[in-house]
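Narrative of activities, Objective 1.

The group set out to show that a structural description can be obtained from nothing but a protein's sequence at a throughput compatible with the screening campaign. Below is one input-output pair from the validation batch, recorded exactly as produced.
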Amino acid sequence: MSRILAVVFLFCLQLVSCKLDDFQSERRNEIMFIGIDVSGSFTKTDLFKDGVSFLSHYIHGHLSNKGNLSNLKDLYVGGIGGNQKEEPQSFFPIHDFAGKTPEEIEKKLKLEFANQKDNLTDFNTFFERTKTIVKQKNLTLLPLSMVLLTDGVPEIEGDKSKKAVKQAYSKIDMSPLENLTKEVTLRMLYIGPKVGFNWRNYVPTNKIRVWTVEPKVMYGWKEQLKRNGQEGLWKWIGDNIDLKVRSRGI
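Output recorded for this entry:
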């Protein structure tokens, strides 16, 4: 009898182990770069304030393996912009956020990004800096998820005609990200519908998958957290932010 019980016990252990392996295999391993728009026109808005609060939970969830969020092999958080064009910002590594609560992460993000003034929005410098780090750290074998907190509007000089706007978007250079890793997805948060359209249609790229989330959708994360707790938030993130983007959506 004891031998039969031992066999049953071992079988149950193997079954549980298989289930755990299956769950772990569902987790996507990737590297992530988070960019925060530090231009004066954005940091003073409610979009920025709500976005920083969301990112604190988003980063915490990924680094703590919450829900079915992807497992981050590496993470960098940096500013998009500077006092002058092509001025690089500091990129803070995964160690600055690992093991911290959402409240501690939010405090860190506000300290580093909320008090900059009159900066320019410079997407090209951010993309080039991302390429440099990925190459130097030999991270090219994993998918790259780039998450940007920004209104998505590039610097537009002179008139604001449709032609000038189209030219401004066409000058955004994502070529440093092309073929950088096995898969590159650009996720832009708090982007208005028109700006999202401009990114998908006017910013030149061949392989990079662009996903934009409108402010009205983004504001729903707090309601999910309030009604359904953290588990509800992780599911909401999976359905609305981290979903698999299968094409550029043009």
